[in-house]
TrEMBL record:
Domain DUF7869 residues, every copy: 55-191
Full protein name: DUF7869 domain-containing protein
Organism: Holothuria leucospilota (Black long sea cucumber)
């Protein structure tokens, strides 16, 4: 197994430190559209399902520009405040070298359980997340099932927001950002906590606001024929010979 490539499952975590609870999005290989901002924003849109009606939100994340620190995430937070889904949203990027925080703690609990579990299917990973703590801190959320059923949509936020917003210049220099519903489309940013705050309007036209409706969902790519054949020929022999093997490494049918 060391030299083989089993079915992959990505994990994206959002932690609410006030409870504490962590939602772990489990992304089956066939459901993985991208690891970029479209996916991150779609999972961050979890406020609709896991939110508590909070009006003020403070978010902490690392400085990964491809996923977190980019113009599309800024536009999404501005969009939420424009439509008063939140009155205020604050975004803090951790300083390099100090990026270990609560999601790493909860992921560590899951990793310990994963190492002691027999994993042959996505449902086994889901159970490993659920049972990784006695206080039900880790919450599993499947993005989709092995049979192709989509449970959490990935939306085309980039195409949806681009006509209305413009990028923040020198975005990588800032670590503290905030948005307020009383200033639609305006981002307030500071380089560090004790730096002078600057403001910048992200709207291309302040008289034209983005709609409240959601973007179009992106269809998951699924597994290629070559990948399905690889799993069947090389991985199925290591799976428990039950229905889970049919989900993870489906039987090939020839004509």
């Amino acid at each position: 197994m060391y030299f083989l490539t089993p079915l992959k499952c990505a994990v994206f975590e959002i932690n609410c430190e006030a409870f504490p609870k962590q939602v772990n999005f489990l992304i089956d290989e066939g459901m993985s559209i991208s690891k970029g901002s479209n996916a991150v924003i779609s999972y961050l849109h979890f406020f609709d399902n896991y939110g508590l009606g909070e009006e003020i939100t403070r978010l902490h994340c690392d400085n990964c520009s491809g996923q977190n620190k980019n113009k599309f995430v800024m536009w999404y937070l501005a969009w939420r405040c424009i439509h008063r889904l939140h009155k205020s949203m604050e975004l803090y990027f951790l300083v390099a070298g100090h990026t270990n925080f609560s999601p790493d703690w909860c992921f560590g609990l899951f990793k310990q359980r994963y190492r002691r579990s027999h994993i042959t299917a996505l449902c086994d990973i889901q159970e490993a997340v659920r049972s990784s703590s006695y206080q039900n801190i880790n919450i599993p959320q499947l993005v989709g099932s092995e049979d192709g059923q989509v449970l959490v949509n990935t939306y085309n936020w980039q195409e949806f927001l681009s006509p209305y917003f413009k990028p923040l210049p020198q975005i990588k220099n800032y670590h503290h950002m905030r948005f307020n519903c009383d200033h639609p489309g305006v981002i307030f940013a500071k380089q560090y906590a004790d730096s002078k705050e600057v403001s910048f309007s992200l709207l291309k036209d302040p008289t034209t606001l983005p709609p409240l409706e959601l973007p179009l969902p992106l269809a998951p790519p699924g597994l290629s024929e070559q990948r399905i054949q690889y799993l069947y020929n090389n991985i199925r022999q290591f799976c428990a010979q039950d229905h889970r093997a049919d989900l993870t490494c489906p039987i090939l049918w020839g004509f």
